[in-house]
Design goal:
Length: 311
């Protein structure tokens, strides 16, 4: 199955900047992007190997398809490329219903990786109260697994704290990632393993939205065993994950076949992967260095998944 991520946000929030960064630094992944307007994404001309009226192919293997011919047609075209993209991104327009677009991630051959919504930290609350666009903005927040609170440099520390409280009320299920210039590491954005040795991160304090001056790096926890587990025990493990886990993914042999595991924000997804025939399993959790609660993860694995290997 191909992972599928929706990236939304109201006009001017910075989602095009985020998408452009992911396309320029795919970390070895062949990304496929469905986009409303090529001109909105600042693609370095040196990266473009081929382009026609509705498709742009990049030298790093990434592909951009225009939605001008319709979503279903563009998605089918993207998935029929050879080789097929490793991960599909969808840029939702500023007024699109991101929840509806996310439903495509449950179609055969696709697996919903998450919904990312970029916001303008300075203006988001005014937009939410606007009589014309307020409902759209709030629907974006309510559908988000991860909120990129962009343009943090334009607000004060007190405004960051106030924004954190407001976001917790409007979107309690979401993780919040404070950023400037829509900086979001690809490991967090897409849940993939980056080839970068280190990443500069900001804290994920939902209440305060403070930028951490220490720039902590990633920490990882890995668990693997040749034994199968029950779907029920795996679900119990996921229910008790500590909040320090930002992302978790893996493939697990279970009593119901191979299950794909995806965790981001409050989203916990278990989906059968019938096309995979193998034994053995692995889970990888990602968090911030000195914040990821590996002791709790170890104990949870002992309680629900029988054995562990930490790396």
């Amino acid at each position: 199955m191909t992972p599928y991520t929706v990236i939304g946000g109201y006009l001017g929030a910075g989602k095009s900047t985020l998408i452009g960064h992911l396309l320029e630094h795919p970390e070895g992944q062949r990304l496929g992007l469905l986009i409303n307007d090529f001109g909105a994404i600042n693609i370095d001309a040196a990266l473009i190997s081929n382009a026609n009226h509705n498709t742009v192919e990049l030298t790093n293997g990434c592909i951009c398809c225009s939605l001008s011919d319709g979503f279903d047609e563009a998605l089918s075209s993207l998935l029929n490329f050879n080789p097929r993209p490793d991960h599909v991104l969808v840029e939702a327009s500023g007024v699109a219903d991101v929840k509806t677009l996310a439903q495509y991630g449950h179609h055969p051959g696709l697996s919903l990786s998450g919904v990312i919504v970029v916001i303008d930290s300075e203006t988001i609350r005014q937009q939410a109260e606007d009589r014309y666009v307020g409902n759209t903005v709030l629907r974006h927040l309510q559908a988000a697994d991860l909120i990129v609170a962009n343009k943090q440099d334009l607000i004060s520390e007190q405004e960051r704290r106030d924004l954190g409280v407001w976001l917790n009320e409007k979107s309690p299920q979401s993780l919040v990632w404070p950023s400037m210039q829509a900086a979001l590491p690809i490991e967090i954005a897409l849940g993939i393993e980056s080839t970068a040795k280190q990443q500069s991160l900001t804290t994920l304090d939902h209440a305060s939205l403070e930028i951490d001056p220490a720039h902590p790096t990633f920490a990882r926890w890995t668990w693997e065993t040749p034994c199968a587990v029950t779907r029920e025990s795996l679900a119990r493990f996921l229910e008790h994950l500590p909040p320090s886990v930002i992302r978790l993914k893996g493939l697990i042999d279970s009593d119901q076949g191979v299950l794909e595991v995806q965790v981001v924000g409050a989203r916990r997804t278990l989906r059968k992967r019938s096309e995979i025939q193998r034994k053995g399993q692995q889970l990888v959790a990602i968090g911030l260095n000195h914040h990821l609660d590996t002791e709790s993860l170890n104990q949870l694995a002992i309680d629900w998944l029988s054995s562990i290997t930490q790396t």
